[in-house]
Structure formats: C-alpha cells, structure tokens
Design goal:
This protein has 354 residues and is of the alpha+beta class. The chain has two domains: 40-189, Sandwich (Immunoglobulin-like), CATH 2.60.40; 214-352, Protein Transport Mog1p, Chain A, CATH 3.40.1000. It is built from six helices and 20 strands. It is elongated.
C-alpha cells in the first residue's frame, strides 16, 4: 500500500514539474524581444522632370548673377541645383551613421568610381533617438554625380562641360554600419529634354547675302558701318573706346565695336573689351583677312572673362586714319553656344566708305 502511495505521489510530482516547465517555456516565448524594425528610405520628389527644372531656372539665373532675359538660354538640367532633393528614413539604430548612395547602372560612365564599386555617395545622415533621419542632397553632389560636371583648376564647377545623367529611374541605397542591412528607393530623373526630331537643314544664303535680317550701325566720323541681327538691341552710354554695344534678347551674344589708338590688333582688342568689362583676354588664333570692300584686316578667335564668366568670341579689326576699328562678337558658351561661322559673318560686315 505504501509503495502504491509513493508511486502515485511520484507521478503527481513529475506531472507538476512537466507542467511547470511547459508554462515557463510558454512565458519565455511570450517575453521574447520583438524583431528589429524594418529600415526604410524615401526621397522627395520621387521624380524630377523637365517642367520642374524649367520652373526653377529663374532662381538659378539669379543666383549666378545673370539677367532674367538669360533664363531661356539656360540648359534645363541646371535647374537641379535649385530643386531640393530630400531623403528621409526610419527604423535605423539610434545614432547610426547612414550613407546615401546613388547606384550606378552597369555601363554608365561615372568619374571617380573605383573598380569593383557600384555606387557613389550623395549624402550622409545620423539616425536620431527614434531611429529616423532626414538629409538634403548638397549642390556639390548634384554637380558631381547628377550633372557630371568638370571642374576648373580653381576648384569651380565648369558648367559649360556637363554631361547630365541619362533620363531614367535610378536606385538610391541607404546603408549603415552593417552593409548587409539597408534600404532602397527609386528616383526618376529627366535631366535632358526628350529627343526631338532633327530640323531640316537650312539653306545656305546666296553669295554676298547675309544669313540674318540685319540692322546697321554707321560711324560718320570714320566712315565705316557694321551690320548685326535686327533683333539685337543697342545698349547706349558705353564708355570709350566703345562706340557701339549691342546684344541679343538673352544678353548674349554681344557685339562690341571700338575705335582706339593702339600699336597692335591685340592691344586694340584689350582696350575695347576691357571697357566692356572683359578681362584675361587670350587670342587663340590670329590671321589676316579681307573685308567685303577689299580692306585688309586682321581676324582672331578669342577667349575672355566677362563678369566672372568664361566667354568665347570672334573679332575683326582694321586700321583707319591711324586708329584701330575692332568688331567683336562674343558669347558665354554656357548660355548660348559659340557659333564661329555666324560670329565671323557678323564681324566681317565691317566696311569702310571709299
């Protein structure tokens, strides 16, 4: 009897122990830590199109010190400099340093991308106490990686030499200390205008006929004249040795006509362009030429800095009564491209009365 009683008590004790273990295990399962939050990244705006870029071009022109009339001549892609591109994220470890990267598609050329790498850094952020971050894309990153601009020796972006990213959808990746843990989002870029149907080739003007409808400046004192496009407007009140200054609606190209006593053609150009605010004149090439009236003259391709912007131009000069008459047509190439054929045509309209 006593053994049966012991067996019953032993069995009961074992059952209680098993029940205790089961309940303990179930309790531990309920108290297990929750899984880590999902790491996220978002971008605003999710798409940058041509309409968005063109809308902010006036702000870009103002920031660069350009007149409002120059806005239509600016490449729309420059508008990205005024579009705020903001990245936000959540679910990151507190105080985690987060790197925002543009994933470079295979086959796309990106300077500075080391062998084996597939992305470039476009921003950095630190997660706050709630695991969130917010950071805007800096202008330098836009210039380097979206516009793919060259840089001058003075460490300034050369916005004449840009190669914007092709239109398309790009992956933006956010990574923390553990590169295996990250998040991605898509950014659609339309930095380039849609491909247009090529315009028919314009017919060449007949010999002796100008390719543009012309207005004319006449200097009675020295007996010469210069023709220029009719829609260009004269800016009066120029200081000597400038006798005529005209410009297109966008303020470039410009036409500068000067009369100056100088030893050489180069000296005369320096004096005339200097009065117009030009500095650092460089004559790329200089040759002899003849005007339509048979007058012997000099012609030159030049480079000059105008109000801090690099400009290119074409100049013609001839001596009359001991003075140089120079005609220069120049442009800031990032606004209106240099057109040597047209600029030469305008400069060569210089004529002297017999």
């Amino acid at each position: 009897m006593e053994m049966r009683l012991f067996s019953c008590r032993g069995a009961a004790n074992i059952a209680l122990m098993v029940l205790f273990l089961v309940l303990s295990t179930a309790g531990c399962a309920r108290e297990a830590p929750p899984p880590p939050p999902v790491r996220t990244i978002a971008v605003l705006p999710a798409k940058v199109d041509q309409a968005t870029l063109k809308a902010v071009l006036p702000a870009v022109a103002k920031g660069a010190g350009l007149p409002e009339a120059a806005v239509p001549t600016l490449p729309p892609c420059l508008g990205i400099l005024a579009v705020p591109v903001k990245f936000t994220g959540s679910g990151w470890p507190v105080n985690e340093l987060v790197s925002i990267e543009l994933v470079v598609p295979p086959g796309l050329d990106m300077k500075g991308l080391a062998p084996g790498e597939d992305s470039v850094g476009i921003g950095f952020a630190t997660a706050d106490a709630s695991g969130k971050f917010e950071v805007a894309m800096e202008s330098t990153a836009k210039i380097n990686w979206l516009l793919r601009s060259e840089w001058t020796p003075f460490m300034k972006p050369d916005l004449r030499k840009i190669d914007p990213l092709p239109n398309g959808i790009y992956n933006i990746r956010a990574v923390g200390l553990d590169p295996r843990m990250g998040a991605t989002v898509s950014l659609e870029l339309e930095l380039l205008p849609p491909a247009a149907t090529p315009a028919p080739t314009a017919e060449k003007p007949a010999p002796g006929k100008l390719s543009f409808e012309a207005a004319e400046y006449t200097n009675v004192d020295l007996g010469f004249s210069v023709k220029y496009p009719k829609d260009w407007k004269e800016t009066p009140g120029q200081k000597a040795p400038i006798v005529f200054y005209g410009a297109a609606v966008a303020q470039v190209p410009v036409l500068v006509v000067s009369v100056v006593e100088a030893a050489t053609f180069a000296d005369a150009l320096n004096a005339g362009l200097g009065a117009a605010g030009g500095t650092d004149l460089k004559i790329v090439s200089e040759r002899e030429t003849s005007l339509a009236d048979g007058t012997k003259a000099s012609k030159a391709v030049i480079k000059v800095t105008v109000k801090g912007f690099p400009a290119e131009g074409f100049a013609v000069g001839a001596k009359k009564d001991g003075k140089w008459v120079t005609v220069t047509v120049a442009t800031v190439a990032m606004l209106v491209p240099y057109d040597e054929a047209k600029f030469s045509e305008i400069a060569h309209t210089l004529q002297f009365k017999k």
